[in-house]
Specification:
Blueprint (H helix, E strand, L loop, with lengths): L1 E7 L2 E9 L17 E5 L6 E2 L8 H12 L29 H11 L17 H16 L3 E13 L7 E4 L4 E2 L4 E3 L4 E9 L5 H9 L8 E5 L5 H10 L4 E5 L14 E3 L32 E4 L2 H9 L22 E6 L2 E14 L4 E11 L7 H24 L6 E8 L7 H9 L1 H7 E6 L8 E4 L28 H6 L3 H7 L4 E5 L17 H7 L4 H21 L9 H19 L19 H22 L6 H17 L24 H12 L7 H23 L10
Length: 726
């Protein structure tokens, strides 16, 4: 029941609005469309139903009623006569606080009081993980937030409970590494060792150019540069039988006996339920992700790796590999045995929400993984602490200082992050249809005080907040997209949000040191070691990182319009178009792919160029609409924001299966559907690679073209505003 007071023809009248249903709505779902609205003059004894208003949102009707009765009243976005305690999240009112005041308030509130969320053992699904999750949940409840949990039953690989993994090099002693790689193939492989540096594609190509046979070889590679999963996938492409990964002292100062832990799933989430959530009640036939490797993979210590490397014979390493050791020959035989066991674990994601006051069903998500292989102080403790501290600070701002965010903020504590963002991905898979329409940004807090990088979707680049300096004259904006950002993000929950779900995402790290943090994936990730890397500045860096993440989130829920520049993708699309066109038409002056007969002459890049032009014009048109928009028009702001939110989602290719290619984003994803893959496919056609297929390329090319055009159509808005030249 809501009472509304308004001056009617000089008299004070009272109107009472009654809804026929008091059913509580779940967060993000609007049941108000099914409610009957009654208009009741208080000086009348009769209630007058207004049936034709049954399908109208209550807040929209109230605003319209006020404007209709007296256009000289305060503007729509001014403080209205509605009481926030009566309609806490659908008033149409604007935030009553200036942005500079919001920033100052957050700076005053944010402290390091939540740094007590540490645990010596909180591997995913363990009692320690559950206990830590309950602590986070309790904190959220203390702050007055609406909370809930999300339970999943996931399959992961762990080391054998009875038994061991082992390696035997030549006639040497048996070694039993304690580290392991989850999702490796199981069994025994025997083959000659081949040193492949970091296992990157370009390095394997160097070995191929040296006419080295890699079939059946056991690859010895250094950790670093790319993910464990990418190393194993690259080795599998050249028919290697196994991969051994070690931390070279040149990259890792962790000693010669420290074990490494990780996973080799070329994807995220539970690989045994690809594309759908691992709820306990789901009954699906046996299936597995295409990103699972079919070869063995095992980590070994630095001491084990160096011992093998020193004994290798064969040819010298290629120039630039910075080692005097040999590559290995056919006599350098090693036996690798992996006996990891597949187990089912119950995990819980923990959530809390601060609801918005205008568009409560639109929200930014801030998340951090909670689990770790060992102490995980940098990997999870700092991020979880900052997550909880942000929740406390912003809740306090809303409760006690009058801050009223337009949109909601969801705080998420993920489990099973070390196995490949399992908790986050399962949540996305479970609620994708709703999240892709309502969640407009994800901010990742994992490892935020280690290393220096800032990665994410280009829509968030124009936010001036990225100009924050991590050093005297170096800003995070200057690091955006550098340092092999796709590989870095792939092990972050930000990547499935962006490339699987089409939700703009950002991940960042910064500290005052000169080197990256070497203890991820080890049991040495402790508070003491993090302090040694950061000159004991962990609390200060955590607050600084929390302010940065908080500023992004608060700006996105404070302003009338989302600060995202859709034109930032124009340059990226054009660069891909230029590369594809060059290869199709004139890869070489007299030997283009069409001239050489490798592609049919009927194939034209014109359609791709036109689709690119459509997107460019649509993004420019929306930019003009934003410039000409009336910020007092709440419905117009909502429509514009919804158009902005469709962009990342519509860059997801609808033509590929989440099982085969979960990261469906054609610009930032991975797989044969991406524009980057089209360029690589053309190169394969040029070199007569047996895996290249001209007909397949034409299909992929057509689908990518239409995906861009579809995104442009959606961005244009109304059906009569489409700019479709194809």
């Amino acid at each position: 029941m809501i009472r509304l007071t308004q001056n009617m023809e000089g008299d004070t009248g009272h109107v009472e609005i009654i809804q026929s249903s008091d059913i509580n709505e779940p967060f993000g779902v609007g049941n108000h469309l099914n409610r009957k609205v009654w208009l009741v003059p208080l000086n009348s004894v009769e209630s007058v139903p207004i049936p034709y208003l049954e399908s109208l949102p209550l807040s929209g009707y109230l605003i319209g009623y006020l404007v209709h009765r007296n256009k000289d009243l305060a503007p729509t976005c001014a403080p209205s006569a509605f009481r926030y305690e009566d309609i806490p999240h659908e008033t149409g009112a604007a935030p009553l606080m200036d942005w500079d005041d919001v920033k100052k308030l957050l700076a005053q509130k944010l402290t390091t009081s939540s740094m007590d969320l540490s645990s010596s053992n909180h591997r995913a699904g363990s009692p320690g993980d559950e206990d830590l999750g309950n602590k986070v949940l309790k904190k959220f409840k203390e702050y007055g937030m609406k909370t809930w949990t999300d339970e999943h039953f996931v399959k992961v690989q762990d080391p054998p409970a009875s038994g061991y993994n082992r390696i035997v090099f030549k006639n040497g002693p048996e070694e039993r590494p304690t580290g392991f790689l989850s999702y490796s193939a199981s069994g025994t492989a025997r083959g000659a060792v081949l040193y492949a540096r970091y296992g990157e594609e370009k390095e394997l190509k160097q070995l191929k150019d040296m006419n080295i046979d890699m079939n059946g070889r056991v690859m010895l590679v250094r950790a670093g540069r790319i993910s464990f999963a990418e190393k194993v996938a690259n080795a599998a492409k050249v028919n290697a039988s196994a991969v051994l990964i070690y931390p070279d002292p040149a990259d890792y100062s962790i000693g010669e006996s420290s074990p490494l832990f990780g996973h080799v799933h070329m994807g995220s989430g539970d690989p045994y339920t690809p594309g759908f959530p691992s709820f306990n009640h789901t009954q699906f036939p046996p299936v597995q992700s295409s990103g699972l490797p079919n070869i063995l993979a095992q980590t070994i210590t630095a001491g084990m790796g160096l011992n093998i490397l020193r004994q290798l014979g064969g040819r010298a390493q290629p120039d630039g590999w910075e080692s005097i050791n040999r590559l290995g020959d056919e006599s350098d035989v090693i036996t690798v045995e992996v006996n990891n066991v597949l187990t089912e674990k119950r995990i819980n994601n923990v959530f809390g929400v601060i609801k918005g006051f205008v568009d409560a069903d639109r929200y930014v998500v801030i998340g951090a993984q909670r689990d770790a292989w060992g102490p995980g102080f940098a990997a999870s403790t700092v991020g979880t602490s900052v997550l909880v501290e942000l929740a406390r600070s912003i809740s306090d701002m809303v409760e006690n200082d009058g801050f009223k965010p337009r949109r909601s903020i969801v705080f998420a504590s993920w489990s099973a992050g070390e196995y490949g963002s399992v908790g986050a991905t399962e949540w996305l898979e479970g609620y994708l249809s709703s999240l892709s329409m309502k969640a407009f940004t994800y901010i990742n807090l994992d490892g935020i005080v280690t290393g220096i990088y800032c990665h994410g979707c280009r829509l968030l680049v124009p936010m001036k907040l990225f100009n924050v300096n991590y050093d005297k004259d170096k800003s995070l904006l200057s690091q955006f997209g550098k340092n092999n950002w796709e590989s870095t993000m792939m092990d972050s929950a930000a990547y499935p949000f962006l490339a699987f779900s089409g939700i703009p995402s950002v991940a960042f790290r910064f500290h005052s040191g000169s080197s990256d943090y070497p203890y991820f994936g080890t049991t040495l990730d402790t508070q003491q070691n993090l302090n040694s890397i950061t000159a004991s500045q962990v609390p200060q860096l955590a607050v600084r990182a929390g302010q940065f993440a908080g500023h992004i989130a608060l700006r996105l829920v404070h302003d009338h319009l989302l600060q995202m520049d859709l034109k930032k993708y124009n340059q990226l699309i054009r660069s891909h178009v230029v590369q594809i066109n060059a290869r199709v038409k004139n890869y070489l002056p007299s030997a283009g792919l069409q001239k050489s007969g490798l592609l049919p002459k009927a194939l034209t890049v014109q359609w791709l160029i036109m689709a690119s032009g459509s997107y460019s014009r649509a993004s420019s048109a929306l930019a003009a609409d934003i410039q000409n928009s009336d910020l007092e028009d709440i419905e117009m702001c909502r429509v514009i924001n919804d158009r902005i939110m469709t962009v990342e989602r519509n860059f997801l290719s609808p033509y590929v299966s989440p099982r085969d290619s979960p990261f469906r984003h054609i610009l930032l994803g991975s797989g044969p559907h991406t524009l980057k893959a089209l360029t690589s496919h053309l190169d394969s056609l040029k070199t007569a690679n047996p895996d290249a297929n001209a007909e397949l390329f034409r299909n992929q090319f057509a689908r990518a073209t239409w995906t861009i055009q579809t995104c442009a159509n959606s961005l244009a808005g109304d059906i009569w505003s489409l700019d479709n030249e194809i």
